[in-house]
Design goal:
Elements lengths: L1 E5 L2 E5 L3 H10 L10 H16 L5 H14 L7 H10 L1 H4 L7 H27 L2
Antiparallel strand pairs: 1-2
Helix pairs in contact: 2-3, 2-6, 3-4, 4-6
């Protein structure tokens, strides 16, 4: 569950537990198991793909990014950490309408998309070996 405060008002958004559990099943993990960066990459790609296909909301995408961000073991601001950080901010900035919001939201989506494409390219290279 995440609480977003914008314009001195707060809204609470429930974590998309069923969606996340479905992703865990796809990688063969239970909710109590540790996820490594490869698992996090897979879940991020599926979350992004489901969002772009209209299956998940922006809040689902943002909330899952936020949760995955908390699972990272080391904070070195890697590309993965950057993508998760920007993704986790989307729920707030889409509601905090200011002049910089439009550019921040689109910049965040571009950062996410570029990371997803990077992961896909790595997977293609590994398949072709």
């Amino acid at each position: 569950m995440i609480t977003i405060c914008s314009n001195k008002k707060g809204i609470t958004i429930d974590f998309p537990a069923k969606i996340f559990k479905d992703y865990l099943v796809k990688i063969g993990k239970d909710s109590g198991e540790i996820l490594d960066d490869v698992d996090i990459d897979k879940i991020l790609v599926w979350t992004y793909d489901d969002f772009t296909a209209g299956k998940n909301s922006l809040d689902d995408l943002s909330d899952i990014c936020n949760y995955l961000h908390t699972l990272l073991k080391v904070s070195n601001y890697s590309d993965l950490e950057k993508a998760l950080h920007y993704g986790s901010e989307l729920s707030f900035y889409i509601r905090d309408i200011k002049t910089r919001t439009d550019s921040f939201v689109s910049e965040s989506m571009v950062i996410l998309k570029e990371y997803i494409e990077k992961i896909r390219n790595i997977e293609k290279c590994e398949e072709n070996k």
